[in-house]
Specification:
Structural class: alpha/beta
Largest sheet: 5 strands, parallel
Helix content: 25-40%
Radius of gyration: 23 Å
Order of helices and strands: EHEEEHEHEHEHHEEHHHEE
Strand order of the largest sheet: 2-1-6-5-7
Strand content: 15-25%
Bound molecules: ligand JD2
Number of strands: 11
């Protein structure tokens, strides 16, 4: 896969030389190229921004400079996706990461200031490029660089032949799908007056699986009620339903196949 990142702060992306993404590059699975947007400016001051039409605070990035940059980095032959990180985007999820992992090329356009002139996304959509305006969450960053790092890491670890431990990806894809992970423990067995839950030392595989699923359900109900409300009742066994009932969740009497608060 080819990944191009365009930014006025290309040094922000230097952490991509490390760890997993760096390894993928060394192994030839990832062709990562970071570019300085100012390389496509044509004026003496290398200007990338201007004042917003309609007024208001701050500056907006010029579409003409972005157009020259994106036209040059887009590989016409490849199935390219243009990703524009923005606080106004759809929220980036594992589903986006999975879908982007099979693309031929990803181009990340990292804005600064108040963002990039809206015609850039519109123009490339009109030109037949798959454009994704994505946010990494409901908080405000100063630019798209850190958001791009997050998305690149999430995608890179899904590229076939990439992850250190393929078992962990298999478990992720069909394990406790739709639930948070259960708590994990390792040695030493006693630390800070805290012991390992006995069942994990028992060697009783079925009991361990049940204990882990119970903890995952409890944790999810406590921290992510939105995920409990999205669970298909058909994916839950008798024991799951009994535990969830104790936690205040029951099958919707309107029988839509989901749970609701009792
Ligand atoms: C960005 C800015 C508009 C306020 C380019 C912020 C983001 N989850 C996220 N939070 N913030 C961003 C993000 C991404 C790109 C830019 N800014 C600053 N723009 C209003 C602040 C400029 C993502 N993804």
């Amino acid at each position: 896969m080819r990944v191009d990142v365009v930014s006025i702060f290309p040094d922000y992306l230097s952490v991509l030389d490390l760890s997993l993404v760096g390894k993928a590059r060394q192994r030839g699975l990832l062709d990562l190229r970071v570019h300085d947007l100012r390389d496509w400016t044509t004026d003496r001051h290398r200007t990338v921004d201007d004042t917003p039409f309609g007024g208001g605070a701050g500056m907006v990035m010029r579409p003409d400079v972005w157009g020259l940059a994106i036209d040059e980095v887009l590989d016409g032959a490849a199935g390219a996706h243009l990703i524009v990180p923005t606080p106004s985007g759809e929220v980036f999820t594992q589903r986006h990461a999975e879908s982007l992992a099979s693309a031929d090329q990803l181009v990340f356009a990292c804005g600064r200031y108040e963002g990039i002139d809206a015609r850039v996304a519109e123009h490339y959509r009109d030109a037949g490029v798959t454009v994704h305006e994505l946010s990494i969450g409901d908080y405000v960053l100063n630019g798209g660089e850190v958001a791009s790092l997050v998305m690149i890491e999430a995608v890179a670890r899904l590229i076939p032949g990439m992850v250190g431990n393929p078992d962990s990806l298999v478990e992720e894809s069909h394990g406790a799908a739709g639930l948070l992970e259960y708590p994990v423990y390792t040695k030493p067995p006693s630390w800070a007056d805290l012991e390992i839950p006995e069942v994990l030392l028992s060697g009783h595989h079925a009991k361990i699986e049940r204990w882990r699923r119970d903890r995952a359900l409890e944790r999810t109900a406590q921290r992510r009620p939105d995920m409990i409300a999205a669970l298909p009742v058909a994916s839950l066994d008798k024991h799951d339903l009994a535990l969830l009932a104790e936690l205040g969740w029951v099958p919707d009497p309107g029988d839509d196949g989901k749970l609701t608060r009792a």
